[in-house]
Amino acid sequence: YALRKREALMSLGFSPRALLLAVVNTSSGEGHVVLTVDTDRGDYVLDNRYRDVMPWRELNYTWYERQDPDQGWTWVALNPGQTAPLAVSAISVSARELYLDPAKCF
Question: Residue 86: what pLDDT?
Answer without folding.
Answer: 46
